[in-house]
TrEMBL record, chain A:
It comes from the Bacteria. It comes from Sphingobacterium haloxyli. One of its GO terms (molecular function) is ATP binding. The keyword ATP-binding applies. SMART domains: AAA. Keywords: ATP-binding, Nodulation, Nucleotide-binding, Transport. This is ATPase.
Automatic annotation (TrEMBL), chain B:
Residues 146-372 form the ABC transmembrane type-2 domain. It holds the Pfam family ABC2_membrane_3. It is found in: Cell membrane. Its main location: membrane. It is a multi-pass membrane protein. This is ABC transporter permease. Belongs to the ABC-2 integral membrane protein family.
Amino acid sequence: MKDVVLNNISKTYDSGMVQAVSDVSFHVNKGELFGLIGPDGAGKTSIFRILTTLLLPDGGSASVNGSDVVEDYMTIRKNVGYMPGKFSLYQDLTVQENLNFFATIFNTSVKENYDLIKDIYIQLAPFKDRRAGKLSGGMKQKLALCCALIHRPTVLFLDEPTTGVDVVSRKEFWEMLKRLKQQGITILVSTPYMDEATLCERIALIQNGSIMSIDTPKNIIAQFPNHLFAVRSDNMGNLLKDLRKAKIIKSCNAFGAYHHVTFHDDSPEMKEKLMRVLEEKKHTNIELKPVTPTIEDCFIYLMEN
Amino acid sequence: MRTLKFLLRKEFKQIFRNKALLPMLFVVPIMQLLILPLAADYEVKNINITIVDQDHSAYSQKLISKIMASGYFRLASYATGFNDAFDDVENDRSDLILEIPQGFERNLIRENEQQLYTAVNSINGVKANLGGTYLNRIIADYNADVRVEWVQMPKFNGLPTIEIVSSNWFNPTMNYRFYMVPGILALLVTMIGAYMCALNIVKEKEKGTIEQINVTPIKKYQFILGKLIPFWVIGIVVFSMGLFGIGWLVYGIVPIGNLLLLYAYLLVYLMAILGLGLLISTYAETQQQAMSIAFFFMMIFILMSGLFTPIDGMPQWAYIMTQFSPITYFIKVMRMIVLKGSTFSDIKSHFLIMIGFAVSLNGWAIYNYKKTS
């Protein structure tokens, strides 16, 4: 069963001047937690808006729950939950009023679907009479999720739900998503944070409106073609320059406290060769170790090739 | 219907919770109705006059005292010559100069004829125009007095005069407020309808809440009705407050015509004006834009509505323009029903035109308001 299907979807803005989405095809299985990973401006929100029937695609077709996003938009609107990247609830209504409002316009009540939002709502309960605009960022996010869930949608679209949220709340949020997945809800989530990719079952890496790779995070990492090494020394700035100049190096990118490098040739003696090069350049305290690639490494690799 | 009920409940909750909007809706119209009709008055008093009396005779004194007794003029100064007097005008101390020539009395008696000279500062057109008119009337009156004095014991009335006596219908005392209050009330209802409606919808766009609404099964017409009905109701409430609370109690203006007819017209008018608000909201992306567009239309509508300047005096092209402003019709109908007691057959054409406005403005707005872009 495929809950969300996209076939060659394209979208341009400013009458064709800006290509936001080009020829994107992927599908999301029923009950899957699917991640759309890409930097700002990659086209994630445009894809979400097309799938939630807010935007008409220029080309291609897409369906949610088997309903076409153009023809059957009313059916889709009844059955999906959408949480936009920007907080879009009524700031001058209280937590409870917002929740009740969204429940009633879907012809249901908070009571009816309380079990679905219980875990999240419990944390909001102390603030139920507070206006939504006066909530903290994390609480706003939880309320928005509650409102998107209140009609028991079959597919949930979350557009950058963790952007601008602190680390603890982000972790909590992903825990919540996992629990929702267990309820059988299909979740499509987008994020610019590469470290969150591994929390999804399958991911699509997107850049400049095109999909670069779709697979499980594990497979994407396994497809990384070279051995990856982490290098550090006392002078990280010069080290990056010297590494990039070295002929044996294929790629070199700053990565936290280390620089991640790959060689043109994956033979074992390359490691010693590099050490010699760096010592010649008078680097001290050189540390060189093999590491497993992360999604970010894969993303950069795919971007450069 | 159920969805609409919830939308309306939400809308009213938001309106009554808005601490800045509520006074705007109810207190401001009342304040304006209390202040504007009292301040906006065409009768000009305190016209400064400089008199150059070169005759210093009993007749010139009589003329001067008659002018000063009229209550319209305030003596700025007595000047010795026209040039002195003109200095006063140049320095904005005086609006009018009246020059009484030397030998005024003598020539008047001997030659039965004399000339006076007036000069008017026309920078303020209304003041100059009215001041000149008042002065001419007083002088004419004075002239008549003088003649009556001379023609003692008229055996035969050798001076036939045509006297025009006019009576003012529908507003016998020429009370300026009777004319202004219904017009200003019409204007206030318009402002509330167009501004509030436009701003409210654009606010949803600006805050992004419309995105969230658009992914729900709410239908286009439900959303629009949910926005129009609250302001429709508020418009009626504000109108009633103004008509009965201020018009009747404070100014004593009792509507002569049929109230049901007046309200029926109001309902149609509000539909038209809310349609304008809706239309503005479909073109504006932010509240600032909506405000600017609404302000532009309101300024033109107000200035060309016939509230301050009579439409009939406008040039042909301007007259045609006024016919495209719904406010023009509402102000006219307000005055017709409230002051004149017009019946349905009198305003039938106005009714049809307003229905036309309502249908076309709303139709255009709905056509333009797209749920999916």
